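[User] Could I get a sequence and structure tokens?

[Assistant]
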Amino acid sequence: MRPLSNKTKHYGLIALKVLILGATFLYIFNRLSSLDQQAWHTFREAVSGNSLVFILLFVLLASINWSLELVKWRTLVNVLKKITFRESARQCLSALSASLWTPNRIGEYGVKPLFFPKEERKKVMVLNLFSNLSQLFATILFGIPGLVYVLFRFDIEVAAWKPLLLLVFVLGMLTAGYVFRKRELLIRGLSLQKLLDYFRSIPLEIRMRVVLLSVLRYVVFTGLFCLLLGFFGIDIPVTTALPLVTSMYLIASVLPSFFFTEVAIKGGVALWLFSHAGYDEIAVLCTVTAMWLLNFVLPAILGSFFVGKFKTAAS
């Protein structure tokens, strides 16, 4: 096949940047415009009626949340090559901006590798998978006890066949994974066995540090959610808020999020859980929206500047 000329690659990169930036800002506008008017009214009243100190505190916690993610990515990538904190920010925020509007944010698997030479891109995708799995581990670690507590505390009835079906599904996936562990996945030359082998090749100290950073990040954004509940007028004890929040993140993490629906899924799960506990739905919706603005929209806007300056690594 005839290789693409430099000029063609240049215009293709410009088109890709325009697509990413356009889709990102369209997504943000669409989500904000679809927010309930009553929720917007409550949101504006809370922001205008509270001290600027609270706003700065929330921004600080969101910054800590993302700083932990940047340190985590830098720690993982150092297995391949040494990068600075700024380079980690450029890669992570660009990937967020490009993946904000993709299902389950799978777009980051295609963006982060572009910062690396062609021969290292598969390894970068695997490192990104390990990073996301470590965050999922933290979600499950805190979410399962929280969900069990919520179900019994608020007498939420769950049909017996649902957890049984989930157990059968998990066992089926594990069995299929073992049986077909040597089969190629969607990417040529990559199998489940090779994924596991590469995970094992990452030094144990690095893996443990990444898991610890994931847990710390989980603690930060869970604490931020609890503080925002109080900010929007929900008087709730910490002992009640924490199980509800950890349950929400667990349920939302296992539900597939399609184009334009991730915020709606988290909002829907939060409304369902907090309504069982008897708390105001509008305040909960405002909290979910504020979390989205602080932890996704603001970093995505910063990432859009990196996308505008993006150049692929030399092959």
Residues 121-153 form the longest helix (33 residues).
